[in-house]
Design goal:
Blueprint (H helix, E strand, L loop, with lengths): L10 H27 L5 H27 L19 H11 L17 H13 L30 H39 L5 H15 L2 E6 L10 E4 L6 H6 L5 E2 L6 H11 L7 H6 L6 E3 L10 E2 L13 E9 L14 H9 L4 E7 L11 H16 L2 E2 L13 H24 L1
Parallel strand pairs: 1-7, 2-4, 2-6, 3-4, 5-8
Antiparallel strand pairs: 6-7
Length: 435
């Protein structure tokens, strides 16, 4: 019996082999080769337009059904709770005293009045109810539904058609897109690690560009680059707002950079060690002035912000007086939330969320190079660059330090309010003594 060959015993193996061969052939022809050559067939753009039409229909159907069933569809946005009026400390205290019982102290602010504490108590309550800092470290609630339950936590059953559409989207994302993206990600990272370990230094830039473009396909990233004539050139520093670790992939798929950042372990550590082989060490001032060296890519915020604002830039990269190339990055949250909340998600779980989203859609603006002006210190230069990035990307320009994500408010912020209040009291006394 053992001498006879039964072809049906190996049929599953044959079918599996054919499936894998067909799968990798399609990947090679339609994704990997176009990524290496920088060619796009327009499939991702068509995919994005189709998704937008589906999202629009689903949102209308969801809003109509929620209205009929009296369901809360969206979380109330915190900015609608408190309406702050832009008044100074002195004007606010005078207003409180004017509404109080002791009206004789309105024009004479030289003495402490017990009612003054209500101003500071009110500001404290406003900060608790509408904190403009900590809400930058959590994903924003969408005003439309993108068929992801994690993008709207108040989702309820509305109709059978909508539920079937959501289930179909779940099947497509996890049954087709996720395996495809994981395969591309392993291909891109594997090629990066392998080719940088055996390749020559003059090939490192081409290898990096090729591998990053494959990784962009692994996220189904649809990127629009604006004003490419301002793209960072050798012998300068490129600074950008920071939302996610994939910011590096977004920028590096359009050009090569020398990276400056934190050292990580695990998967990120493997990628970092491969990148170091192409550009091992950086001495900031010498590197930035050398026209033969790649531009240095720095994220001066020092942490990830949820793509609604730009927070304080650290002044270190602005002290050397080199040419600075500002870059603004803005993600479209309708297709997937690119923000990395590192205190809530590890790198693997974050990448899983990215790869199980519909797509990563973003716009990149290359701003004209900026120089430090005469008489301008590093902090002023950093704030000027930050304001330009925020203005171009449609982001909120905040003065707060992103380090508040994990630390406490510095005592200097509290002391500043104390100094302002003391100046009101002391200044009024001086004016009265002169008169």
């Amino acid at each position: 019996m053992g001498l006879f060959f039964n072809p049906f015993n190996n049929l599953p193996c044959i079918l599996l082999g054919i499936s894998f061969t067909l799968w990798f052939t399609l990947l090679l022809v339609f994704i990997i080769v176009p990524a290496i050559s920088g060619v796009s067939f327009g499939i991702r753009r068509l995919y994005m337009k189709t998704l937008l039409k589906i999202f629009a229909w689903a949102t209308l159907r969801l809003e109509r059904g929620a209205k009929e069933k009296n369901h809360l569809l969206y979380k109330p946005y915190s900015n609608a709770i408190i309406a702050r009026e832009p008044t100074s400390l002195e004007e606010a205290i005078k207003e409180i005293r004017r509404s109080g019982s002791n009206r004789n102290l309105v024009d004479s602010a030289s003495e402490f009045e017990m009612s003054d504490i209500f101003y500071f108590a009110r500001r404290g309550v406003e900060s608790i109810m509408d904190d403009e800092v900590t809400k930058r470290f959590s994903a924003e609630e969408l005003q439309s539904w993108n068929l992801l339950t994690r993008s709207n936590y108040n989702f309820h059953y509305i109709s059978l058609r909508l539920t079937v559409l959501w289930a179909l989207g779940l099947l497509i994302r996890y049954g087709f897109l996720l395996p495809l993206r994981v395969t591309l990600a392993f291909t891109g990272v594997g090629l990066l690690v392998f080719l940088t370990s055996i390749g020559e230094e003059f090939l490192s830039e081409k290898v990096h560009l090729m591998c990053y473009r494959i990784c962009v396909r692994a996220l189904t990233a649809i990127i629009t680059y604006h004003d490419s004539e301002n793209k960072p050139k050798n012998g300068g520093i490129c600074v950008a707002n920071h939302t996610s670790p994939i910011d590096i992939i977004i920028l590096a798929s359009d050009g090569c950079y020398a990276m400056v950042g934190q050292i990580h372990g695990g998967l990120m550590g493997v990628i970092q060690r491969s990148m170091v082989k192409a550009c091992p060490h950086i001495w900031l001032s010498d590197h930035a002035e050398d026209k033969s060296k790649l531009p240095i890519l720095i994220f001066p915020e020092g942490t990830c912000i949820n793509n609604t604002s730009v927070m304080m830039f650290k002044k270190g990269s602005f002290e050397i007086g080199s040419k600075v190339y500002p870059v603004a990055i803005k993600y479209d949250p309708r297709f997937g939330d690119a923000f990395w909340n590192s205190s809530k998600y590890g790198m693997v779980s974050y990448l899983l969320r990215m790869m199980s989203s519909w797509a990563i859609v973003c716009s990149v603006w290359y701003l004209p190079p900026m120089f430090r002006e005469e008489g301008e210190d590093a902090v002023q230069f950093a704030n000027r660059v930050k304001a330009a990035i925020a203005r171009q990307g449609g982001l909120v320009d905040l003065l707060w330090d992103g380090g508040l994500k994990r630390g406490k408010v510095k005592d200097t912020f509290k002391e500043e309010q104390q100094k302002l209040y003391s100046k009101i009291l002391v200044g009024a006394q001086e004016d009265r003594s002169r008169s």
